Amino acid sequence: MSQQTVFRFPTRNVFDDLTSYQEAIPTPSRDEVLIKVRAVSLNSRDCQIATSKYPFAIKERVIPGSDAAGDVVEVGAGVHDFAKGDRVVVSFDNTRLYGPAKDVVSGQGGGVDGVMAQYIARSASAVTKIPAESPQSYSELASLVCTGVTAWNSLYGIKPLIAGQSVLVQGTGGTSMTALVLAKAAGATTIVTSSSDEKLQKVKELFSPDFCINYTKTPDWAAEAVKLTGGKGVDHILEIGGVGTIEKSLAAITQGGVIGIIGYLAQYDPAKIPNVLLLALGKEAVLRGIQIGPKCMLDDLVTLVSRQKLRFHIEKEFAFTREDIVSAYHALASGKHIGKICIVVE
Ligand SMILES: NC(=O)c1ccc[n+]([C@@H]2O[C@H](COP(=O)([O-])OP(=O)(O)OC[C@H]3O[C@@H](n4cnc5c(N)ncnc54)[C@H](OP(=O)(O)O)[C@@H]3O)[C@@H](O)[C@H]2O)c1
């Protein structure tokens, strides 16, 4: 078998533009491994790319998807630390081994081709081996790549989370739910906000966060978060809403706390953009822009997740057919999910 199914977006207006192609299975070069993809995890970014709403440049006819987990099936002659049969995940930006991002166009499924294929060849240096005893499914492992590393980077990238500190995550999507699992594993006090009581109920059943706030019913969720932390304010906040929620995050953060600038989902009135600089100054807060994270963070995340056997919530798995993948995009865009939406690749 030398051909495989690969999905591309020849145009990017609607999810239905996704098109199936038969293409050659790549031959790994000396420093590459060939990976049989077993699962792809979708992200909000994938929906933005498919509809030309992503704020950064996209490759023509891009193969979508940044997050893959799979099995090594072939090893280049110069690769010594992987063997056939190893379970692996691939770093979001294959060129970023450590340190800050060098650009905004090297992420898989965006400026370069992604992982929505049966087989991918990648530089061994961009690949992380999953320890054999790790209990997570391929979908859970794939989900570590983008939202997982983003959550890790927010909590540990600049001023590491310390046991006993507090963490607030906005909403119940992939990034926030992964951060919740990591924060609980670190012994933090956790606060989850959501637009939905039903979602919060399910999150309580799945993860037992310390506190939940419905941000629709309690619009001043910042004051509530300050109250819940005994008047101190929150130590780490994952900012998912962006301009529309940053003022509240700056009200909720403790003096000297860290806000990971991650998402941009909240509506906002351009006439009422807050004076973020002054608010941050008043709190001596760290506002840190995050672009996923380097491969070394994926390594650290995999070590923790594997040793502590942490489990992540996959809301639904779809099949590797055009129709099902399009349905997966719609499911993610509907915002009805908690955690992750994934595609299982046969
Ligand atoms: N900078 C980075 O490196 C990076 C990495 C990953 C993701 N992101 C960005 O982060 C955002 C989330 O990505 P994701 O993949 O985690 O998304 P997702 O799984 O689709 O989850 C989105 C969730 O965000 C919550 N949300 C929406 N508007 C909100 C608001 N105004 N206030 C609080 N929560 C709100 C909703 O939760 P409820 O329904 O529970 O309210 C929604 O379910 C996106 O903007 C994405 O582009 C950035």
Automatic annotation (TrEMBL):
Gene3D superfamilies: Medium-chain alcohol dehydrogenases, catalytic domain, NAD(P)-binding Rossmann-like Domain. InterPro entries: ADH-like_C, ADH-like_N, ER, GroES-like_sf, NAD(P)-bd_dom_sf, Zinc_ADH-like. It holds the Pfam family ADH_zinc_N. Transmembrane segments: none annotated. It comes from the Eukaryota. Residues 13-343 form the Enoyl reductase (ER) domain. One of its GO terms (molecular function) is oxidoreductase activity. PANTHER family: PTHR45033, ZINC-TYPE ALCOHOL DEHYDROGENASE-LIKE PROTEIN C1773.06C. This is Enoyl reductase (ER) domain-containing protein. It comes from Penicillium steckii.
